[in-house]
Amino acid sequence: MENFEYKVSVIVPVYNCDQYIDSCMNSLLNQTLPINEFEIIFINDGSTDKSREKCEQYEKIYNNVVVVNKENGGVSSARNIGIKIAKGKYLLYLDSDDEITANTLEKVSSYFDSVYEDIDICTYKIVSIKNGVRQPLHFRYKYLNKSGCYDVNKFPYISQSHMNIVVKNGLDIYFDTNLTMGEDQKYISTVISLKGKIGYCNEAEYLYISRENGAIATKAYAYSMYEQRM
After folding, report:
1. Which regions of the chain does DSSP assign to beta strands (E)?
2. What is the pLDDT of residues 7-29, one digit of tens each?
3. 3-class SS at 89?
4. Where would a tag sit more exposed on the chain, N or C end, judged by fewer CB atoms within 10 A?
5. Please, which residues bridge with residue 90 across strands?
């Protein structure tokens, strides 16, 4: 793994999600990638519930778990801390109320290794879960159905907006903390623009679990969206 201590650093921003942290963590503990080959970085963004305690309990048990406690500053500032301290060759982002399938870390890191010189960012399948039921995949996966490197100028339907991504560590690119909407898209677009290509690993899955009180639900009001887009 060259100069990196781990194959993958999983960056998990945490804010008042104590009821979901166990399921998120279990999806990481069940990975087929050996546990000593990845680290889990919880950034507690000033939670007022039991999130800090839960994260620190895992830190005491597992050597590959790191917890950073900070004042509330938003998801972008939390992710930026994760980027700065990550010791993995690749950065994988996971929201604390979501999960990934058991083979995800192994498959995406293995795929990235095979095309390391060609891309700086890799995406993988995102599956929406509502009331415990897997929803139909986005139409893009009718076309994006095999692993490979894609030129975004030739394949614009791949446009990436969610955080089901893996990014090469050491790019020195961070999230814009001035944005509360669209920060994901700006970060992703900046990374893609370095080479104009994005990788896709068909065998991994990000499980996007819909919550009534989730981050998107609470800030996706017309006024908030309009102000941020402008």
Report:
1. 6-14, 38-45, 65-70, 88-93, 99-100, 121-130, 133-134, 148-151, 165-168, 197-209
2. 999 999 999 999 999 999 999 99
3. strand
4. C
5. 8, 168
Rg of the Cα atoms in the chain: 17
Q: Which two tokens stand for residue 221?
A: 């009001």
- Dig out the tokens for 186 from the structure: 């700006």
d(CA 36, CA 25): 15
User: Residue 70, by phi and psi: left (phi above 0), alpha (psi -120 to 50) or beta?
Assistant: beta
DSSP code at position 145: -
Q: What is the pTM assigned to this prediction?
A: 0.91
Q: How many CA atoms lie within 13 A of 178 on its CB side?
A: 3
Instruction: List, in sequence order, the alpha helices (H) in 30-163.
Output: 51-61, 75-85, 104-114
H or E stretch including 191?
helix 183-192
Q: Per-residue pLDDT tens for 58-71?
A: 999 999 999 999 99
> Which tokens sit at 14?
């945490």
